[in-house]
Inverse folding.
């Protein structure tokens, strides 16, 4: 069935201020900043920017709300979360449209995001009864002492959300913290705050005031949240550099942090891989639909020399057939833009570095020529780009580009290949393509990544922990561990006589 999208004017949020304490509030500093449509580069609307005094008020409101939310019965918390999930499902098309116009990601592909966020809200509602403690044996007779543990919420949680799927991350990641009895302040990405504002409009009558807040803003807002003494945990979906900055700021008040960071993920293809499936997966793994902007993109493709040339040729053919840059709000668009001019410049900079360092440009490498003379000429597009003959020391083999740029590396010796795979500081995901289970298991044992697919790419499965090792993150999401990350354990010892 074809999706019916509302007119953009009806989908966009009518509020552009800050949402905290259950109300819309104008920024005390009076600062507003333009947000753009990355498909055209044109402004959409001005959105409030939270400053230090706004953060003070929002955190205080969230803290007051915490004092009662933590005591809210489990069944009530579950019903709040499930109602929120139902609302997101009902509004999937408009939320997809808002993110399309503000992130540059094609609207048809964004439809799934509301579903994912809603599934997460339902999932964590169902998991709340797992927040149980234990009765523990101690060193003395049980007639003398009873020892047990209880799980308690932490307090106000600040969640910083990445620019690639703003409302999916806001909606899905608020679920665990709220389910556990905390209150949450979400800071949307500067580049694309509109879907989080729409989220607040949709959920404002569902949760009690202060349980969730949306504070659009820039560095001042970020710094104020990460250093505020009443914010007890800071979580980020973002880049490694931002993760380090947040950790430094949070360290002053010894805050817990939870980090979902970048990746430079390897796809490893063995000679016995099913070639048709491999070709399709190499292309799918790059997430060209949203211009490569996915933490899990398998942007380093290790092809065994015996299949290298045929796979590369077919990958290129498939990319050229399947992806055409277009306006993100058009349901027929198969490839979106980067989220901002800064992101476009960064990606073009990496492409230039690859050329200088000697990689072989196979396709792409610039702005799409076919957009010249159209209304999209000012959009932040980059063609799907493939470099071959990439060597491990090249910048594009080592750094996360977060754009539509695939690096293909040829390999011969397995030990040398796995050494190169593991030679970088990232450790988010990895994909292994082979028909042989023993080969797959040998690689699984060696690849340094928090999440490994065998004969697949990119898929997330709710209830299966997702997260990185090395500099790609701290903690696990989309599973019970995520819920447990938002409680602390209190040990109780009762002297019985
Ligand atoms: N591991 C994952 O699950 C996952 C998922 C999606 C994206 N990512 C990563 O996110 C990055 C892309 O997203 P991005 O460009 O929005 O990332 P980013 O690091 O630039 O920004 C992420 C968020 O942090 C905020 N922020 C930036 N500096 C801050 C500071 N000093 N203090 C507090 N907040 C600050 C931003 O406003 C934004 O909301 C990529 O590295 C990508 O791999 C990771």
């Amino acid at each position: 069935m074809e999706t019916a999208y509302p007119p953009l004017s009806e989908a966009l949020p009518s509020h552009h201020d800050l949402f905290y304490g259950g109300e819309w509030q104008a920024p005390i500093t009076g600062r507003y900043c333009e947000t753009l449509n990355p498909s055209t580069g044109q402004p959409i609307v001005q959105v409030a920017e939270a400053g230090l005094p706004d953060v003070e008020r929002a955190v205080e409101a969230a803290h007051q709300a915490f004092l009662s939310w933590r005591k809210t019965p489990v069944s009530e918390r579950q019903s709040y979360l499930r109602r929120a999930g139902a609302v997101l499902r009902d509004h999937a098309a408009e939320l997809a449209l808002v993110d399309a116009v503000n992130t540059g990601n094609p609207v048809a592909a964004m439809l799934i995001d509301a579903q994912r966020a809603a599934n997460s809200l339902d999932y964590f509602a169902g998991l709340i009864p797992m927040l149980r403690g234990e009765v523990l044996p101690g060193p003395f007779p049980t007639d003398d002492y009873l020892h047990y543990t209880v799980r308690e919420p932490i307090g106000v949680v600040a969640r910083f959300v990445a620019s690639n799927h703003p409302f999916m991350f806001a909606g899905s990641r608020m679920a665990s913290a709220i389910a556990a009895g905390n209150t949450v302040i979400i800071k949307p990405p500067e580049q694309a705050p509109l879907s989080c504002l729409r989220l607040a409009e949709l959920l404002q009558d569902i949760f009690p005031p202060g349980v969730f807040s949306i504070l659009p803003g820039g560095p001042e807002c970020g710094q104020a949240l990460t250093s505020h003494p009443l914010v007890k945990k800071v979580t980020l979906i973002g880049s490694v550099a931002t993760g380090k900055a947040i950790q430094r700021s949070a360290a002053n008040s010894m805050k817990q942090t939870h980090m979902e960071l970048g990746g430079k993920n390897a796809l490893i293809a063995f000679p016995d891989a099913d070639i048709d499936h491999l070709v399709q997966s190499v292309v799918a793994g790059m997430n060209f639909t949203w211009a490569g902007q996915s933490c899990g993109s398998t942007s380093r493709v290790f092809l065994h020399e015996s299949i290298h040339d045929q796979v590369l040729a077919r990958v290129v053919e498939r990319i050229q057939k399947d992806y055409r840059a277009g306006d993100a709000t058009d349901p027929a668009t198969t490839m979106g833009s980067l989220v901002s001019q800064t992101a476009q410049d960064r990606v073009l900079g990496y492409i230039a570095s690859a050329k200088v360092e000697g990689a072989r440009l196979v396709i792409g490498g610039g702005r799409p020529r076919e957009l010249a003379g159209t209304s999209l000429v000012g959009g932040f597009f980059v063609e799907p780009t493939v470099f071959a003959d990439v060597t491990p020391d090249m910048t594009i083999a080592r750094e996360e580009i977060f754009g539509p740029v695939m690096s293909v590396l040829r390999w011969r010796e397995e030990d040398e290949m796995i050494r190169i795979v593991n030679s970088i500081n990232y450790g988010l995901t990895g994909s292994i393509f082979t028909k042989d289970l023993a080969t797959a298991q040998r690689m699984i044992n060696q690849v340094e990544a928090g999440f490994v697919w065998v004969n697949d790419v990119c898929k997330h499965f709710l209830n299966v922990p997702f997260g990185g090792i090395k500099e790609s993150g701290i903690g696990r999401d989309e599973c019970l561990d995520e819920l447990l990350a938002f409680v602390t354990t209190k040990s109780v010892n009762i002297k019985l006589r």
Observations:
- The mean pLDDT is 97.
